[in-house]
Task: inverse folding
């Protein structure tokens, strides 16, 4: 299908055209930038809200995402989902296929779910994932959920892709402090202890609240008075957003209404004082840099003799006569001088 046909189908809100547009963008085929430029002109008009959902494997992110979708659909809100999965080492495609795990909503015409491979992107989010979220927003979905693979501390990408980031944890994740390392503590606007019907959930939830309080200087505000140290009262709450720590049982829907209400409160907080516009502005600035880097990388690989120059120096690097840094500097100098350009 030509780019023009895809754009025509998107204008008619045809799901098949949306699926083809996503494939075009994901594989960076001819015309994908034209489709994205068209989509960019439609962003910010329909009041779409983007929510990122991340957390360690096994936390129940997909089940919680499914429960949120059901609640949004009960409110007659259309929902688009980008489920970022690990990349198959054999096919390069999404390994887990979250659409299978969201079976109850996958056939709903008001829901569109797309599984995407991380393709080795840091934190499980490639630039293309954000671009797919743009397509879903431009198509008119009122809620766009981005669920990430949730491994390591590099989930910071999700915070730049959504207005609200939800971190999903589970009581049996082991040492609470280990589960809440600094890299993952910094990113969330809302914390969810899922499977909170399991033993130790209340204790773990309190650990999360204390850890968050330590960062804000009021660590024991959530702790019962008879557990507090009398000699050190809690600090007064700040005027900024204080991330709530919620308990859910996604498999039964328990706590999902409270989570949805927290999402609404955070969105209202962002709207106040221009925070929402500023967050979107920062996201677009980061996107522009990422697109520029991608274009430069493609030009280096396809429009210059970098690979040829590298191959000619590889023996010298392998036998220790030259370092990779020396060769990289030489190649870069040649490219700058025009000697590395394809003729």
Result:
């Amino acid at each position: 299908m030509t780019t023009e046909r895809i754009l025509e189908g998107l204008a008619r809100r045809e799901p098949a055209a949306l699926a083809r547009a996503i494939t075009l963008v994901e594989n960076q085929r001819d015309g994908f930038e034209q489709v994205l430029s068209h989509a960019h002109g439609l962003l910010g008009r329909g009041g779409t809200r983007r929510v990122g959902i991340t957390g360690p494997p096994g936390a129940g992110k997909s089940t919680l995402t499914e429960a949120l979708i059901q609640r949004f659909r009960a409110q007659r809100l259309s929902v688009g989902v980008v489920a970022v999965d690990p990349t198959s080492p054999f096919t390069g495609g999404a390994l887990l296929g979250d659409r299978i795990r969201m079976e109850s909503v996958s056939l709903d015409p008001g829901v569109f779910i797309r599984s995407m491979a991380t393709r080795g992107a840091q934190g499980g989010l490639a630039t293309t994932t954000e671009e797919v979220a743009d397509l879903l927003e431009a198509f008119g979905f009122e809620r766009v959920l981005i669920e990430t693979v949730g491994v390591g501390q590099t989930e910071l990408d999700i915070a730049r892709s959504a207005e609200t980031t939800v971190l999903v944890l589970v009581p049996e994740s082991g040492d609470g402090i280990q589960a809440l390392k600094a890299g993952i503590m910094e990113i969330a606007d809302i914390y969810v202890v899922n499977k909170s019907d399991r033993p130790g959930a209340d204790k773990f939830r309190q650990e999360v609240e204390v850890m968050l309080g330590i960062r804000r200087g009021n660590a024991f505000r959530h702790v019962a008075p008879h557990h507090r140290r009398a000699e050190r009262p809690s600090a007064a709450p700040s005027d900024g957003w204080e991330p709530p720590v919620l308990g859910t049982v996604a498999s039964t829907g328990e706590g999902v209404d409270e989570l949805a209400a927290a999402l609404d409160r955070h969105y209202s907080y962002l709207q106040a004082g221009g925070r929402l516009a500023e967050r979107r502005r920062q996201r677009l600035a980061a996107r522009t840099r990422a697109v520029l880097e991608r274009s430069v990388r493609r030009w280096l690989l396809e429009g210059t003799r970098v690979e040829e120059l590298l191959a000619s120096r590889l023996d010298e690097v392998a036998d220790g006569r030259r370092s990779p840094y020396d060769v990289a500097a030489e190649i870069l100098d040649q490219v700058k001088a025009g000697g590395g350009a394809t003729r």
Notes: Residues 89-94, 226-238 have pLDDT under 50 and may be disordered.
